[in-house]
Write a structure and sequence with these properties.
Structural class of chain A: mainly alpha
Structural class of chain B: alpha+beta
Strand order of the largest sheet of chain B: 4-1-7-8
CATH class of the largest domain in chain B: Mainly Beta
Largest sheet of chain A: 2 strands, antiparallel
Number of strands of chain B: 8
Strand content of chain B: 35-45%
Radius of gyration of chain B: 25 Å
Radius of gyration of chain A: 46 Å
Order of helices and strands of chain B: HEEEHEEEEE
Largest sheet of chain B: 4 strands, mixed
Largest interface: A-B, 86 and 66 residues
Shape of chain A: elongated
CATH topology of the largest domain in chain B: Immunoglobulin-like
Oligomer: heterodimer
Strand order of the largest sheet of chain A: 1-2
CATH architecture of the largest domain in chain B: Sandwich
Distance between the termini of chain A: 107 Å
Number of strands of chain A: 2
Helix content of chain A: over 70%
Order of helices and strands of chain A: EHEHHHHHHHHHHHHHHHHHHHHHHH
């Protein structure tokens, strides 16, 4: 029995949840009473959730974790949660959380379920889970839970409720920045630009000391800048847009926006400065693409017609090449190999829900889908696809094993059929029952010997022979004579007989008990032999039944494996198609935008040529 | 230009979003169902495999466990039954971590006839002060009818600041 450093029954779940946070602070100890429960923990601690669940299910079915029955089910819920089987997990928690765990563990569990459900787009379920949280969440999780609540409200278009919730935010933690940003988002989306501007302006002016906060500040400035441009306040828009870092994820869009603010003010020379900067940047970025049209537009406004025409021509050529690249990428995605390439470097047995694909493979797809990677929809879809691949490979392995099991059973049946006649014949020859009867007979003889004190009966072979010889010599006619020699011999014979008798009488009890002990041992051995024989017979009789039982199980499992494998393969195709469609939609949107830009560029170019022709004709 | 487009969480096409989310959820539910069914069939197959390869009457399972384990950094466990080597398991850092936290590793399963058998377990690793450490422990196994579980336990003897290796029947 081991006294291991484990968590208390009630904290099993917090242990699972603590894994999420990569920290455990519980120092309680319990004793692993059932080895199979410890085995489940062995896999769980290695974050190998699939084998952990399978072993727990098997152990529960075999009643091998009875001493851990209470925590085993809770652990199973936690394992399902870690494995991403959130619906199974929730069913267990619904049943157990009310009474079995502390309020803190219960609230943390509902919080994590709410988070998973939100990320998977189960907004109603996520909201229900949040509603179950009472008041026992630690402060950092409480903030995150409030943010989650606000996001659900925004995503379900309940802007007023989201605004009311976020306006009550009253701490200055890192979360406060996100709260302000989301408040700004909710205000803009509900049409209250001025109120949003105040919030976002405050957030856009903070002194950020981390990349995360700096990025948030840039995002707020960008959102504010564009909101102001759209609201017809280009001068005011420039300040927040110019606060965005020149090198960062939002810099291209900010540079574009600064240019548009100047263009709105008809300061085209100034507008060209940020737009020309964008020319050297990655054409994949929509802001860079838009700048390629904005630049000739500004030149045209400045009456630099030939420069404008050159830039329009450059833009058309660049858009054409980019469209071709997108077409090739779409074709590659449609071929269906892309997502397997994504997962090629991922170990097949990484089964945890907390997994994320961090890095896209090299190649054009990676460039185009970079932004997609950051979305829950894509990540969760990819996670499902990864899990399906694992399930398929698992079933594939079992399909091969089950054939081996079938062969094993066939071989055992053949061996049984070959050995049984020999075994039956051997058993038939061994007449154990008559041996038992003989020991009983012998026992009764011993009783008679003991009762009659028949010491001669216990003489050994040599003694018995000697006794017989003495007796026969004594009765020899020669010794019946009156000769002195005959009398001497007779005397010696009597002496010898007396010595032999004396020894046999003296050792009678010892001999009797030795014989009895030996007889008892023989009887015991015979009883054991009878028991073994019965077992052999039982086993021989039971073997075909046992083999039939195992065969039936094999036969029922085979079609189940095949059926499941087909369903997994079908769902894999559906999941892959779903992911392909998301990716292709993103690419088509990019292509459509480029098509529109190309048309705009061609029109603008045609207009320039018309103008040039008109001016030329007028000059002539 | 669209100010909304710059905002996180903005939705340019709510209808398409909802449709896509519904599609995702429908697929996700299918995946959840499949996961549950595959887990259940794995349970059935695991039990079948065990009954087939290690029938309850002859089954003996050997489990490695660790209580604290501060004085011993486990590398491997070697098992001999009746003089014959049956298992030699090399532990990864991750597995040792799992043992230290209370996990129990089923290192070997065997079929043994009823009667007496001798088990020799040899543990190798690093002991106190990082020195190479190799220790053995033996046990007479009296195998009767029914499965038997043997525990190979590594514990700390705090007073001597040394690891201790115990082999015994799991009760």
């Amino acid at each position: 029995m081991i006294a291991a450093r484990l968590l208390m029954i009630a904290s099993c779940l917090s242990l699972v949840l603590a894994t999420v946070q990569a920290a455990t602070d519980d120092k309680h100890t319990i004793v692993v009473k059932d080895p199979h429960y410890g085995e489940v923990l062995f896999y769980f601690y290695q974050e190998e959730y699939f084998p952990a669940i399978v072993r727990l299910l098997a152990a529960e079915k075999q009643a091998r974790v009875e001493q851990h029955a209470d925590e085993a089910e809770l652990l199973r819920g936690g394992l399902y949660l870690s494995y991403g089987n959130h619906l199974e997990a929730a069913a267990i928690f619904e049943r157990l959380l009310a009474s079995n765990v502390s309020p803190e563990v219960r609230d943390r569990t509902w919080f994590f379920l709410a988070k998973i459900w939100y990320q998977r787009g189960y907004f109603d379920e996520s909201q229900q889970a949040l509603d179950k949280i009472k008041a026992a969440l630690p402060q950092n999780l409480r903030r995150e839970a409030t943010m989650l609540q606000a996001q659900i409200l925004i995503d379900t278009l309940q802007f007023d409720s989201a605004i009311a919730l976020l306006q009550r935010w009253d701490d200055d933690s890192d979360w406060a920045g996100y709260a302000k940003f989301n408040l700004g988002v909710a205000l803009v989306r509900s049409g209250r630009v001025d109120s949003a501007a105040r919030i976002l302006d405050g957030l856009g002016s903070i002194s950020a000391n981390s990349e995360e906060l700096t990025s948030l500040r840039d995002k707020a400035n960008l959102a504010l800048g564009y909101a102001l441009i759209q609201d017809g306040q280009p001068t005011a828009a420039k300040t927040p847009l110019q606060r965005v870092r020149l090198a960062g994820p939002f810099s291209n869009k900010a540079l574009l926006g600064v240019g548009w603010a100047d263009a709105e003010l008809e300061r085209y020379h100034r507008a060209l400065v940020p737009w020309m900067e964008l020319r050297s940047r990655d054409l994949l970025d929509p802001a860079v693409q838009e700048s390629m049209l904005a630049i000739p537009y500004a030149f045209a406004k400045l009456d630099s017609i030939s420069q404008s025409a050159d830039h329009y021509l450059n833009a058309i050529e660049a858009f054409y090449e980019e469209i071709n690249r997108i077409d090739r990428t779409i074709a590659h995605i449609e071929s269906g190999d892309l997502f397997d390439e994504f997962l090629a470097d991922e170990p097949l047995d990484s089964t945890g829900w907390y997994w994320r694909l961090e890095k896209l493979p090299q190649g054009p797809e990676g460039r185009y889908l970079y932004h997609l990677l950051a979305t829950h929809e894509f990540q969760e879809g990819l996670k499902n696809y990864r899990d399906l691949r694992y399930l398929y490979s698992n079933l594939d392995d079992w399909q091969q094993s089950i054939d081996v099991f079938e062969n094993m059973l066939d071989t055992r049946r053949l061996v049984y059929e070959a050995r049984t006649p020999r075994s039956r014949s051997a058993l038939g020859r061994a007449d154990v029952d008559s041996l038992v009867a003989r020991t009983r007979e012998f026992d009764s003889t011993l009783d008679n010997i003991e009762r009659s004190g028949d010491w001669l009966a216990l003489a050994n072979e040599r003694e018995a022979r000697m006794w017989g010889e003495i007796a026969s010599l004594e009765s020899a006619p020669a010794l019946a004579s009156d000769l002195t020699e005959a009398a001497d011999v007779l005397t010696r014979l009597r002496l010898l007989r007396g010595v032999l008798q004396w020894r046999l009488e003296r050792e009678f009890k010892d001999r009797l008990s030795r014989v009895r002990r030996s007889l008892r041992q023989t009887s015991e051995a015979l009883v054991e032999t009878q028991r073994s024989r019965r077992q052999v017979e039982l086993s021989m009789r039971g073997q075909p039944l046992a083999l039939d039982g195992l065969s039936r199980r094999v036969q029922s499992l085979k079609p189940r494996i095949t059926g499941l494998k087909i369903r997994v393969a079908d769902t894999m195709v559906e999941q892959r198609t779903y992911l392909q469609n998301i990716a292709i939609d993103v690419l088509r949107a990019q292509k459509e935008r480029l098509d529109i830009y190309t048309v705009q560029a061609r029109f603008a170019l045609a207009a320039i040529y018309d103008l040039a022709a008109t001016v030329g004709a007028a000059t002539e | 230009m669209n100010a909304d487009a710059a905002m996180a969480g903005s939705r340019s096409n709510e209808g398409a979003e909802t449709e896509s989310r519904d599609r995702f959820r429908a697929l996700d539910r299918d995946v959840q169902d499949l996961k549950t069914e595959v887990l259940n069939i794995n349970r059935d197959l695991l039990l079948l495999e065990e009954e087939l390869l290690f029938p309850a009457n002859s089954q003996v399972a050997f489990f490695v466990s660790m209580d604290i384990g501060e004085y011993f950094d486990l590398d491997s466990v070697n098992l001999k039954i009746d003089g014959k080597e049956v298992a030699n398991y090399l532990y990864t850092e991750r597995e040792v971590g799992a043992l230290q936290r209370g996990g129990v590793h089923r290192v070997h399963m065997a079929n043994l006839k009823t009667g007496e058998h001798e088990l020799i377990a040899v543990f190798t690793g690093r002991g106190p002060h990082g020195r190479d450490y190799r220790r053995g422990a033996t046990m007479k196994i009296d195998k009767g009818i029914g499965a038997k579980y043997i525990e190979l336990e590594i514990t700390d003897r705090v007073r001597k600041q040394q690891p201790e290796f115990v082999v015994r029947e799991w009760e």
